[in-house]
Design goal:
The protein is 8% helix and 31% strand. It is mainly beta and 165 residues long. It has a six-stranded antiparallel beta sheet with strand order 1-2-3-10-5-8, with helices on one face. A hairpin with a 5-residue loop joins β1 and β2. The mean pLDDT is 88. It starts with a helix and ends in an 18-residue tail after the last strand.
């Protein structure tokens, strides 16, 4: 029996991936794609937060689903994305704050099964301050992150270091 968070993930996926069928055409009947836990290819650095993209590509337009397996540590700084995103807490508790004021004490510890939808442009900061957590993200790709100052004004992008030669 799927867990509550599994049902939420399936519902989110069904809402963005259901094809529109022509009245006379027989739909294709492809086989499901099954990935057992040991087959999932996680990215990230050893001992750090791990990420996996299960559907789509976060860098390209179109729906995506990712999972972040966060280590405990300082939350992100206030930022926003131009497109709406939905987050589902799959394991542990996720520390979540919103608005341009970076107030770690005002963050909410959201328990497993919590669903958070952030409208396009909504300013958030998030992480797992004291214990690891696992969070699923559902969104539309090609959606960069923009940092903001304490007044909610978009900051210029930080310069990236030159590639090593």
């Amino acid at each position: 029996m799927p867990s509550f968070s599994g049902w939420l993930a399936a519902a989110a996926l069904a809402g963005i991936a259901t094809p529109v069928l022509a009245e006379t055409a027989e739909p294709p009947h492809p086989a499901p794609i099954i990935q057992l836990p040991d087959q999932i290819k996680w990215g990230g650095r050893p001992g750090g937060t791990r990420n996996v993209t299960l559907l789509g590509d976060t860098r390209k337009p179109g729906p995506f689903i990712t999972i972040a397996d966060w280590v405990a540590g300082p939350p992100s700084k206030p930022h926003y994305h131009p497109k709406m995103r939905t987050f589902i807490v799959l394991k542990g508790h996720w520390d979540f704050g919103w608005g341009p004021k970076y107030d770690l004490g005002a963050m909410q510890a959201l328990p497993e099964g919590t669903v958070v939808t952030v409208p396009a442009g909504g300013i958030i900061y998030d992480g797992c301050k004291q214990a690891p957590c696992v969070v699923e993200t559902v969104g539309d790709g090609d959606d960069p992150e923009f940092m903001v100052d304490e007044n909610g004004k978009t900051l210029p992008p930080e310069p990236r270091p030159a590639p090593a030669r």
